């Protein structure tokens, strides 16, 4: 046990009084109907409902047998917590500011059970005190002086399975940071703050005490009460500012030779405690010429008792006006990182989450918020590393505050009704390893960086169940093309113009050569027009089976049917079969055979032969080992994609082939061999 004594004295007497407004005060009447408020007639303190500071609990009124005129109005209601292991008030504080926090409990048989509960009270993530209600009609007040480290402070009631926790009043009062300084932890008031030799014999608080501390009257039979009618002026030299009405009285020994004995508690209950004892002194009697001041006193003590006795040339016995005794509440568990608290509180507000998200998100570990996982490193603030909001009824877009959870490794937003795009800020979460967005209504494309991390195995990405969301590189390629539309359109327009000019030149040249070539073309047409009857390019179905090795390798499928790979005299060919259920039919088959037997051009695939046997209709083409035009226009590898010069040559060649062969778009075909489009 360790006891620290702090002697606080004031020396002057005056007729002036001190005063202060309620600036910075927060007075919550717990259980008061929402939006209700009032000024307490006894204290002039302004009380408001606690409804906006907590999202759990039920409101009750104390039993009528306790609702008498002697019960202060703030005690008429209670908020009880029959559900949940921990229920917390979340109040706004000024970081690094010292506060006096008071919690008051008046059972009043509000639940008609006559069962006095026992439960724990927490300040932030640390236990403050165990609340044990001993009497239904007597209010119990717990006070603590707390240096708020963050801009939010939580006061929580934790269920111990020994009755339902409840609370009547919660109050916060800012103090000067120069007062009540402890080496570590917070200072909880031990029992009561004592007004020794009280003049009023009533509890003193605001407005007499500018900090709204509660001073209880106390008299000792073996001591003598002394007092003055003058006001004690503590001026600016005493930041504690004890109430003048308290400092106007004191106790002293009748016999100046006897010490003034003080005891602070039971040695068994408090054997492990560290105490801070604040004693307030004021010379309230006019000294005669032969008298020396009371301030020449000494304090000695051991265990839980201590004595004040006169020293030096003092002629008067020691006196004591008021005393406060506090014990240290060690705050060993750090609050969650302020940045993470800010972010998760905004997320909670955005989505209206009604889980057990109360108090500190990560601490203590027994009360971590549902859906959160945190990382702990000694005394450093915990940080949020995982957020699971699956099946939480979320709507709207993905909250931008998620980006402020910088250490997030796993994010699960699956099975909600989230809309809008997948935001780029998710790519900025460098630690993110798992991202699940399945089963929503997200639209647009998945950011490129997320796709790259997924493809490289750095991110487990799940986006199924979003019908209007594209999760491939090709989607992002198309998206990127939107930014070069003006350039692309200009190049395409130039391409069309140049192609048209060159086509006109080719057609004009062809017309000049028509006289010479006409006769040759007529002869060729007459020679090949009846090629279906020629056996030179006609194969039997058994030969087709041999060429394709029983249709072993499929190259593709089209309007006719399937295309297979094959070998004809060690030369690769493509074999297209007409399905019996083909919607294009025999007529189109004949049209294509006649056309391709007649047309020979370097820019068109050559027909090697055909098969017309019973229901078996087959066309045999040259095999294009390097793929078709569509492949080279849409290949993923930029190195293999056709240049604009190559595309121009193909366009001119195709136009020339069409002009030479008079191909019409009524011909059916298979992509890669003769595409009518």
Give an overview of the whole structure.
The structure is a single chain. The protein has 9 helices and 41 strands. By secondary structure, the protein is an alpha+beta fold. The chain is rod-shaped, with a radius of gyration of 45 Å. The strands form 9 sheets. Strands 1, 3, 4, 5, 9, 12, 15, 16, 17, 18, 23 and 27 form a 12-stranded mixed β-sheet that branches. The chain folds into 3 domains: 2-329, Sandwich (Jelly Rolls), CATH 2.60.120.260; 338-471, Leucine-rich repeat, LRR (right-handed beta-alpha superhelix); 529-661, Phosphorylase Kinase, domain 1, CATH 3.30.200.20.
Layout: helices, strands, pairs:
Layout: E1 2-10, E2 12-14, E3 26-29, E4 37-39, E5 46-49, E6 58-61, E7 77-80, E8 86-92, E9 97-105, E10 118-123, E11 126-132, E12 140-148, E13 152-159, E14 166-167, E15 169-174, E16 186-189, E17 193-196, E18 215-218, E19 224-227, E20 231-233, H1 244-247, E21 249-252, E22 260-263, E23 274-282, E24 297-302, E25 305-310, E26 319-320, E27 322-329, H2 338-351, E28 372-375, E29 383-388, E30 395-396, E31 410-412, E32 417-421, E33 434-436, E34 441-445, H3 448-455, E35 460-462, E36 468-470, H4 473-481, H5 485-528, H6 541-548, E37 554-557, E38 562-568, E39 571-577, H7 585-598, E40 607-613, E41 616-622, H8 629-634, H9 644-661
Parallel strand pairs: 1-23, 3-5, 17-18, 29-31, 30-32, 31-33, 32-34, 33-35, 34-36
Antiparallel strand pairs: 2-20, 3-15, 4-5, 6-7, 7-14, 8-13, 9-12, 9-15, 10-11, 10-13, 12-16, 16-27, 17-27, 19-21, 21-26, 22-25, 23-27, 24-25, 28-29, 37-38, 38-39, 39-41, 40-41
Helix pairs in contact: 5-9
Membrane topology: Single-pass membrane protein
Pfam family, one: Malectin_like
Enzyme class: transferase
